[in-house]
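This follows on from our talk about sequence and fold. I would like you to pick a protein and set down its sequence and fold. Go ahead and set the record down below:
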Amino acid sequence: MQVRKAIIPAAGWGTRLLPASKAIPKEMLPVVDRPGIQYIVEEAVASGLAEIILVTGRGKGCIEDHFDIQRELEDVLEKNGRKELLATVREISRMVNIIAVRQKQQLGTGDAVLCAAPVEAGEAVAVLYPDDMIDAEVPVTRQLLDVYRRYPASAVIALREVPEEDTHLYGIVEGERIEDRLYLIKRIVEKPPRGKAPSNLAIIGRYILPPEMFPVLRQLRPSADGEIQLAEGLAELSRRGRALGYLFSGTRYDLGDKLGYVQATVGYALKRPELRERFRQWLREVVRDEN
């Protein structure tokens, strides 16, 4: 089954990045010179996806605006002869077809995915969490799609190995390796107590969901605080033998975390030819002075 659409849940409060995220959606905070969410959309496009379903919340309209046409800005840039910047701005608005839906209450990641169901229309979809920014030669979503093409009846979940002392921070899978980097998931344990994790394979925010996921999510019983979590739906698919985990290649940054955000900015600045040498020299000077 061909996957054409991606869901990007972007309705969260961004509390880990307060106070910066008080008035600006965390997804719009810049990594070098473009908002974090643009990198996520670019990953989806580079993976061959044709349509993005943005699940947003109140006060997040600027995310949609960023990917829209802005005639006034284009006119100013054209008038001033800023051809390179004009091309960049136009490229953003032409990148992909984006549909925005509203999650009126933040009732969990599973609920956010269900908000996109009317647009999803019974198809398999990719889900990309904007907190997880992944620098990879082959986009991570593309890596998962390549697995899904061979196993179209199963969900495909991005995994990475984490230190044992960090397993309590993640959803951790217990699985059986069936190919190099590929695991049949037997069980998912959400943020296990220290020393109780079944493995060091942590779930990272990239998924390919089969159409079956949507009725599974609808049948889940909400938690005491009314939330429906995507992890619970994935756990149900794992009990049915319908969940695979793929140990992806790439470097992951947590954009929802202060340290991860700084690391992403440094990592991507070093990838920019016009910044790389000057920035490296400055970093050397900072490290030398700190020592």
Summary: The chain has a mean pLDDT of 93. Residues 53 and 119 are 8 Å apart (CA to CA). DSSP finds eleven helices and 13 strands in the chain.
